[in-house]
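Field log, afternoon session.

UNIT: design team B
ACTIVITY: writing a sequence onto a fixed backbone
BACKBONE:
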């Protein structure tokens, strides 16, 4: 199981899967060539929607051995980090907007021995993470306003991805894009510097998962 390879990671979001059979969906998506499984945790407070928590993630852990990329859209998130680590998260991404003490929070995630990610809402400038880059393995650029699957990729997102890429420079930090990623929008995201593509509806919304994942890679 590797976080670092391959060079382009496709991370389907379980948010768009069939909720009556999530274990089978997680296994099927891994079998179809997904590199990571993206898990969107929402609290109805930081974002206007509620999804699932650590118990569901823990139940899914035996279904596949691909990395679990846990995206926390919850505030506060600090009290729950240990629960998500215990549930089997390989990486935890938290929002810069969801804490007053981002540096401390990222250090706490690092102390749990999982990969550390920081996410930025569309209105948050890339510069918000300038002083914490040494603490992260991944920057998640939200390319829609978080809360729901199936939204349209924001037109100014490539510019934002490019600003993050400039800031990251040569550091070994992955740049993830999340929201509205389809075979049509992925090329612009990749060209701007993204190397982790999260996709919900563009993968789980299709009947052939393997083909949908391949379409995002090409
Ligand atoms: C949005 C979530 C995304 C979402 C993406 O708040 O963070 O991960 O599932 O869904 P699509 O790919 O359908 O835009
Ligand atoms: Zn997400």
């Amino acid at each position: 199981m590797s976080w670092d390879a391959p060079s382009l990671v496709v991370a389907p979001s379980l948010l768009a899967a069939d909720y009556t059979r999530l274990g089978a969906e997680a296994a099927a998506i891994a079998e179809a060539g997904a590199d990571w499984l993206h898990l969107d945790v929402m609290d109805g407070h930081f974002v206007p929607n509620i999804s699932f928590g650590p118990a569901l993630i823990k139940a899914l852990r035996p279904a596949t051995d691909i990395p679990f990329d846990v995206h926390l859209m919850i505030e506060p998130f600090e009290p729950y980090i240990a629960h998500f680590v215990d549930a089997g998260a390989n990486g935890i991404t938290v929002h810069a907007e969801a804490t007053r003490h981002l540096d401390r929070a990222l250090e706490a995630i690092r102390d749990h021995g999982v990969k550390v990610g920081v996410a930025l809402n569309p209105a948050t400038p890339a510069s918000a993470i300038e002083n914490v880059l040494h603490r992260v393995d991944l920057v998640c650029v939200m390319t829609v306003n978080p809360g729901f699957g199936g939204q349209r990729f924001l037109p100014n997102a490539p510019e934002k991805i490019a600003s993050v890429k400039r800031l990251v420079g040569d550091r070994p930090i992955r740049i993830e894009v999340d929201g509205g990623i389809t075979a049509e929008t992925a090329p612009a995201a990749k060209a701007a510097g993204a190397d982790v593509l999260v996709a919900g509806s563009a993968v789980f919304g299709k009947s052939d998962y393997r083909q949908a994942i391949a379409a995002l890679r090409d």
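LOG NOTE: The mean pLDDT is 97.
NEXT ACTIVITY: expression trials, pending approval
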